[in-house]
Every structure is written in C-alpha cells, then in structure tokens.
Amino acid sequence: MDYISKTMSSSELSAIFEIPPALRNRKVQVIVLPAEDTVQELTKSPKRKLGFLKDIIPPLPDSFFDPLPEEDLQAWGM
User: Fold this and answer.
1) Mean pLDDT of all residues in the chain?
2) Position 7 pLDDT exceeds 70
3) H or E, element range at 6
C-alpha cells in the first residue's frame, strides 16, 4: 500500500482543518493513507458509427467547394 508521511508544523495544517489545542504550535507527523479506491474502471463504449445523419442531410455537391462569384464576395465585403 502506498502512503505519504511528512513531519510539519501544525500551523501549516490549520489552513486545512481545525487543529486540537493539544497539537497547536507543535510539529506533527501527517500520514496519508488511501481510504477507498475512487477510480472506477471504465468500460469501453462501442465505437460510434460515423455518418448517422447521411440519410437525413443530403451530401454536398462538388460545386459547393467552388469559389464564390465576384458579386457574392462583394456582398460579404470581401
């Protein structure tokens, strides 16, 4: 089991939680142990199939990618 142990001033800990009067202004040893495993193993979700809207939205014609006419560009301020 992994753990962390550190000796420090109780005044440093007072920002995290209330220190009992008997431990104030003293050096204390802090030991951090895991209480429970909070990381759950994620199950792999099935891959989504791309193109699920292809029956709803028609495909773009090749002319969609042609440059805009000059009058359209001017209308857009380009």
Assistant:
1) 83
2) yes
3) strand 4-9
